[in-house]
């Protein structure tokens, strides 16, 4: 393999480039990035970066020394527009083409938006440019902020806005946010963090539309039940869609992500997919850890020419809200029983941003006597122990197959 | 020098966090005492809550790992080293001498780890 093209210059793309070099690929390496920025870390965008405790330099994923060592050609600010029928040539939006004999697809996902004409004051939070724009607007003084969507991005953004002194309301269409991820019992506990932190949470009500004259500032959010929430700033946190539109017309199968096997290999052996855009073995995970772990397996298979290894990491994600750190690992399914093994939902601390820290809690999810997943709020140490146990169980299980 | 705790209150495999600015974590790694900046250099997480294995401490948030002897990261996602600090045991009490910022972190200069034996 003489040239490998990595399409996508975010976390998964950078890790793929690192793995290519670490696994001995010494040919031409081209990294294409739609954004003009060098690879940066997204998780702090809704937290430290928004509140001003982390600057852009701290977001950088690679320093100059490492970037030099990678010896890659960086095509930044260049969006991929198409992949040819043989899966070897990438056509950029500006008409340029990049040909390789190996391709890593790492184009990630794009923030979902609300329909309707664009209004000033309405934001999504996915990219550095998104975060810069929101940060600048929040710096104008106390405002009424409405966050649409109570998922992790919504909750973290709401928490940051409260910390900055804004009046914050979170609107969630489901009866409870995060139920799919955490199950109803623990989702309910986490929903309680909003009130403790000083944000209002409205659940079970959808958004009918935004108020404001086209091209002018948003003035409010109209709810499906007719209520009107006045707003100066609206943050739309309603999920992300995998960036696969550029693959239309290519031989690759796309269905909520690029379909690939357990080893991140697509229908074409010289094309692999990693990170948010990859639906590996039927699962698409928008997790930071998947984006950092999949590239190792994907690159091994790419260089081998076929699947010689499968990725089977244990799902893990975390979230920082209202001074509490939530960590979750494992594979929970509906009907699992939840047992709080340490701490209590009544002692989570939090409250105002400077409020006292509580004791937190540790909960395990169980099915048929076996632990399937673990959740911690401010209990990092025991969480880590259970998480490692789950990972070891999973490895043993796979080895036995 | 900052008194930490009595030696017998920090058994092997355990750690304690000092609320200094920045916070410092003291570890008993199989009988050897080490002190290192507590906050992971990748993202805000307390290494005193991490996973201790030999002389390596794994961050509880993103699994970055640091060598307690040098403060250097041994794997991604951390890239920057942490300061290490000298540990002394006097009259059965563990003390830490927090390194001045003058020493380059992890370069083995003024901030080099001085391990204290708990044996």
From TrEMBL, chain A:
The Reductase C-terminal domain covers: 316-399
Protein name, entry field: FAD-dependent oxidoreductase
User: What Pfam families does the record point to?
Assistant: Pyr_redox_2, Reductase_C
User: Could you read off the lineage of the organism from its UniProt record?
Assistant: Bacteria, Bacillati, Actinomycetota, Actinomycetes, Kitasatosporales
Provide a Gene Ontology MF annotation, just one: oxidoreductase activity, acting on NAD(P)H
Tree of life domain: Bacteria
> Which keywords fit this entry according to its UniProt record?
FAD, Flavoprotein, Oxidoreductase
Cofactor(s) this protein cannot do without: FAD
TrEMBL record, chain B:
Using the record's annotation, list all stretches that form the Rieske domain: 2-96
Gene3D superfamilies, per database record = Rieske [2Fe-2S] iron-sulphur domain
> Which SUPFAM superfamilies does the protein's record reference?
ISP domain
Determine the domain of life of the protein's source. Bacteria
InterPro entries hit by this protein: Rieske_2Fe-2S, Rieske_2Fe-2S_sf
Keywords, in A-Z order: 2Fe-2S, Dioxygenase, Iron, Iron-sulfur, Metal-binding, Oxidoreductase
Keyword Membrane in the entry? The reply is no
Which Pfam family is one of this chain's hits?
A: Rieske
In the record, what terms sit under GO molecular function? 2 iron, 2 sulfur cluster binding; dioxygenase activity; metal ion binding; monooxygenase activity; oxidoreductase activity, acting on paired donors, with incorporation or reduction of molecular oxygen
**Does this UniProt record's set of keywords contain Metal-binding?**
yes
Q: What protein name is recorded for this chain?
A: Bifunctional 3-phenylpropionate/cinnamic acid dioxygenase ferredoxin subunit
